[in-house]
Amino acid sequence: MENVYNYFGGSGIFIQIGAGAGDKDSRANYRDGFTEFVKKLSKDRIKKIILVEPNPVNIPFLRECWKDYKEVFIYELAIIPENINLKNIDFYYSLYDGPNYQVASIVKQHVLNHYGGNNNIIESFSVPTIHINDFLNKHTDNGNDEIELLSLDIEGIDSEIVLDLKLDNNIKVKYLSFEYIHMGDKLENVKKHLENNNFEYIGKGVDYNGFDYLYKQK
Questions:
Q1: pLDDT score recorded for residue 120
Q2: How far apart are alpha carbons 179 and 177 in whole angstroms?
Q3: Whole-model pTM above 0.90?
Q4: CA pair distance 192, 4, nearest whole angstrom
């Protein structure tokens, strides 16, 4: 993300989809890439921080994480693909993923891929849903506000959500960081979608493990 620190200006609107527990998860060594990036910026550069996290366990952690920032909005929602039309959806999680259950996903197999085994216990909880474009339009003045950084870490469905993004005149994003490691053969379609919408790859994104790609609007 050093590339991003070298530019001047921007809308000051930062959105994280899949916020987890911010920098309050002990199992992640109290690290979160999006959080670290934004907290390195001067506070007067930040107009608004918008966080989406489906797991109710993590909402108090996020409030604590961002308590020193004024314009922070936290939504307990599930972002789902456009081809799913449900008002609520089940999120699956493994009891071995506690205490913050950051691998919770609407895709049960995604959880099993991380926490398989005969003794694994998978449980679920229900969350209200919204589609990505509806959410972004609702919280950026019907798409008129530019999003300076949109960070996506949506366990098991990252490719579907990126492909759903209407990145023409409907959604204005300057930088897009997304987790690519679980995209498999869908990654090439994601790259083409971004390139067709005038985005270019500029390096690794916000994830401190290096699991994100960073794209910039040309």
A1: 79
A2: 7
A3: yes
A4: 22
